[in-house]
Amino acid sequence: MEGAKSVLELFESNYEIESILCTKDFYQSNNSLLGNQNAKIISEKALSDIGTFKSNDACIAVVHLKEHSIDEIDLNQQLFVLDGVSDPGNLGTIIRTLDWFGYNQLVCSLDSAELFNPKVINSTMGSFTRMKICYLDLSDFLNQCDLPKYGAEMQGLNLFETKVSQPSVIVLGSESHGISKEVRSKLDHSINVPKFGNVESLNVAITTGIIASYLRMS
Fold first, then answer.
1. Partner of 87 at 20 to 30 A CA spacing, among 58, 175, 176, 203?
2. Is pTM, for the whole model, over 0.90?
3. Is the pLDDT of residue 106 over 90?
């Protein structure tokens, strides 16, 4: 993890930190937090050289990976599902957006972007530490899931005129391909964020935010 905000989020999580590389200024400003950590002071140039940021004046943390399983997903809570969302930036933004609205679980298809891709991690700004995210075969999962299933699609019913059951499953596909035919066959309803302008499609992360906001306000 790179950058002050993301690394500081780790101290509020249950992720295991292996080591931290940081500038002298970051170390002095966060000495109370870093006291028990394996922290080493290096230069800003060294941080930039070994990380993915063009510039980094704070820190990099090496963190142990942690995977979640379907057994940790609570089907008594609202669930968002991603089908083939392969852009790392979109996945990271979706995770951060769901965290903003207080949703802490996400299911992804096996061909979605990989959670621990650096661009995903950086885009979440630490939100991934509060989320249960698992990857699985969506067809099998939806077959076994008894919750109402809604797909976000262009031809769906107007979201704001639809009473969406809660809890339920909200499935979102990629902008280029949409929801796969196999997954679509498992859905009970289709919903759509109504369009008023002339743009061809709406970014999947923005769509997620609109739906999440609507559900919280319903």
1. 58
2. yes
3. yes
